[in-house]
From TrEMBL:
A Pfam cross-reference name: Amino_oxidase
Domain called Amine oxidase: residue spans: 88-568
GO annotation, biological process: carotenoid biosynthetic process
Family stated for the protein in its record: Belongs to the carotenoid/retinoid oxidoreductase family. CrtISO subfamily.
Topological type in the membrane: Peripheral membrane protein
Superkingdom to which the source organism belongs: Eukaryota
This protein's UniProt keywords: Carotenoid biosynthesis, Chloroplast, FAD, Flavoprotein, Isomerase, Membrane, NAD, NADP, Plastid, Transit peptide
Annotated protein name in UniProt: prolycopene isomerase
Length: 596
């Protein structure tokens, strides 16, 4: 419908769009380190290296110093690792290595860290670029990977507990709040499906079984045999449980217990918001992780905005004696005799290191950065099983506070009439209102509405500048009308500020091929079996981020960062390793992936 040229704005009060800058990320937010709003977290300025506590200077090392020291031979033996990109995946890999004593250089194309988990300021508003729903940010258990990543570099952020993970507004007046308290959520869901009470308890109960197994493990690289076999030895039941569920998907398990098609569609929506695909295509381990963590540790929002996480990690990295360089656009990975040894930037500079870690997507890494090599077999297999998920259309708005009814929840998912529209472009609407939790993000009397919906690059190609801007306006207007009708009457006239980003915006500012949200299976996958880990077929080159195991999600890429750092540390001699067992395990994992 949104592609239809007959969709008109005529019956709406026109919205004033801000055209300077024309797209949301275009006028760059200044890097605001040291501003009062960033004091929400605290980081220790001391680090321990070789048993000595060392004081380091301020976080922003001079760029020239990095440029000089990064050249081959100028930095002692060079860097231990270069990380391409400072998304959460790259930053976690970098900081974890830095605390193990590695010299790391992070190269970021943009002017601030965070990638999809970045932020920007406009007219008194602090907007999160991507998701505002933070899993893994509690102070409980082993799966609070964001908390742990920050703690590793001496940082702690103040968080605000979210009482409701998401409020679903679904077809047939199904309105379900996912309460922080598990029993309250089950009670609410069961009130709609009393005949399926047993099935509901069994399905979510199976999720808890997996979550508890995950939560009992120390999480490190599944590609490192000494660790993996050690875990099997210490926690055999838990590891066997995870191995059993590794090739399974949530939808198939839900169907063992639940018959009601509407309830199965609800479970599809539960999975869709974290995987962009339905339950039949969502790995059971990933579904269990998110469907339980929201009740176990709860969803917690960082005071001052999601951008604070990346800023704290970047500061922590520098505090550990490693470095981050902004406006550093890597255009190629330099290989010598088949081994990755360095990178070249768009301005011609070259940096060298023992290992190269790419936080760019695998499509970008192997399609653009690795030159002159045919696509390795492993990557070919990955691309056979996974395709780029569509991108997003996002609307960042500031609105008058009175338009929101009292007790409005922070996160909403809206699919009005038809379950079949769930996965269609513009079919369902995600909405976050982070100012419900943290009013400091907006001027007084205002709220932030961050609205997004799936949209693919094809829809935005080949338009003139004028047509592109006009189309943004039409599409955004339609989404706002839908929200006005479903949730907030008077929304349009309450708008104080609005910026619209398209897949092109995401591609440009996040450097993700076609602005993709991440990988999604082409058909029904074998759970997580086909998802590659961090090593690649190029010696010395590793990948990290959402096109690695376990996939999309801030907590998921944080885990990928932890795994990557462990594997790299073993390979550069900072952790124990066994070359014989390595060969066997990597061979076995490679073979398992071919079964997917
Ligand atoms: N709307 C949303 O909610 C939303 C959107 C997208 C992603 N996300 C989340 O974030 C996760 C992605 O995190 P991630 O760690 O994989 O990566 P990321 O995409 O967030 O970050 C990658 C970083 O690498 C940089 N980069 C890419 N290519 C580069 C190059 N050639 N040279 C220098 N820098 C380069 C980018 O500028 C970016 O900062 C997703 O899985 C998802 O959960 C959320
Ligand atoms: C190796 C072999 C063969 C075997 C062995 C066995 C074992 C031991 C295994 C193990 C395993 C493991 C450890 C695993 C792990 C995993 C994990 C950690 C996972 C995780 C995951 C996560 C995820 C997926 C997440 C996601 C999230 C997301 C995406 C989010 C998003 C959000 C959004 C978008 C928002 C929404 C909004 C609204 C509604 C507004």
């Amino acid at each position: 419908m949104l592609n239809s040229p007959i969709l008109s704005l005529s019956n709406h009060t026109p919205i004033i769009y801000h055209h300077t800058p024309p797209t949301k990320f275009q006028s760059l937010p200044s890097c605001s380190y040291g501003r009062p709003e960033f004091s929400s977290g605290s980081c220790s300025n001391a680090f321990r290296r070789k048993g000595v506590v060392v004081k380091v200077k301020g976080m922003m090392k001079l760029e020239e110093e990095v440029v000089e020291s990064g050249k081959r031979g100028d930095f002692g033996e060079g860097f231990d690792a270069i990380v391409i990109g400072s998304g959460i995946g790259g930053l976690v890999a970098g900081t974890q290595l830095a605390v193990k004593g590695a010299k790391v250089l992070v190269l970021e194309k943009y002017v601030i860290p965070g990638g999809s988990s970045g932020f920007y300021h406009r007219e008194g508003y602090t907007f999160d670029v991507g998701s505002s729903v933070m899993f893994g940010f509690s102070d409980k258990g082993n799966l609070n990977l964001i908390t742990q990543a920050l703690e590793a570099v001496g940082c702690r952020m103040q968080v605000i507990p979210d009482p409701t993970t998401v409020h679903f507004h679904l077809p047939n007046h199904l309105s379900v709040r996912v309460h922080r308290e598990y029993d309250k959520f089950i009670e609410e869901l069961t009130s709609y499906f009393p005949h399926e009470k047993d099935g509901i308890l069994k399905f979510y109960g199976e999720c808890w079984k997996i979550f508890n197994a995950l939560n009992s493990l120390e999480l490190k690289s599944l590609e490192e045999p000494l660790y993996l076999f050690g875990q099997f030895f210490q926690k055999p039941l838990e590891c066997l449980t995870l191995a059993y569920y590794l090739p399974q998907n949530a939808g198939a398990i839900a169907r063992k217990y639940i018959q009601d098609p509407q309830l199965l569609s609800f479970i599809d929506a539960e999975c869709f918001i974290v995987s962009t695909v339905n339950a039949l295509q969502t790995p059971m381990i990933n579904a269990s992780m998110v469907l339980c963590d929201r009740h176990f540790g709860g969803i917690n929002y960082p005071l001052g905005g999601v951008g604070g996480i990346a800023k704290s990690l970047a500061k922590g990295l520098v505090d550990q004696g490693s470095q981050i360089l902004y406006k550093a656009n890597v255009t190629s990975i330099i290989t010598e005799q088949g081994k990755a040894v360095g990178v070249r930037l768009s301005d011609g500079r070259e940096f060298f290191a023992k290992t190269i870690i790419s936080n760019a997507t695998r499509w970008d890494t192997f399609g653009k950065l690795v030159k002159g090599e045919s696509l390795p077999k492993e990557e070919e297999n990955f691309q056979k099983v996974y395709v780029k998920a569509p991108s997003f259309l996002s609307i960042h708005m500031g609105v008058k506070a009175e338009v929101l009814p009292p007790d409005t929840d922070c996160h909403h998912f809206v699919l009005e009439n038809n379950w079949t529209s769930l996965e269609e472009p513009y079919g369902s609407i995600f909405l976050s209102i982070p100012t419900i939790l943290d009013s400091s993000l907006a001027p007084e009397g205002r709220h932030i509405l961050h609205i997004f919906t799936t949209s693919s690059m094809d829809d935005w190609q080949g338009l003139s500048r004028i047509d592109y801007e006009a189309k943004k306006q039409v599409v955004a207007d339609e989404i706002i009308s839908r929200l006005e009708k479903k949730l907030f009457p008077g929304l349009r006239s309450s708008i104080d500020f609005i910026e619209v980003g398209t897949p092109k915006t995401h591609r440009r500012y996040l450097a993700r091929d076609e602005g993709t949200y991440g990988p999604m299976p082409r058909s029904i996958p074998k759970g997580l079996l086909g998802m590659p880990f961090n090593t690649t077929s190029i010696d010395g080159l590793y990948c990290v981020g959402d096109s690695c195991f376990p996939g999309q999600g801030v907590i998921a890429v944080a885990f990928s960062g932890v795994m990557c750092a462990h594997r790299v540390a073993a390979d550069i001699g900072l952790e124990k390793k066994s070359p014989v067992l390595d060969g066997m395990l990597l061979g076995l994992l490679g073979w398992l992936r071919t079964l997917a």
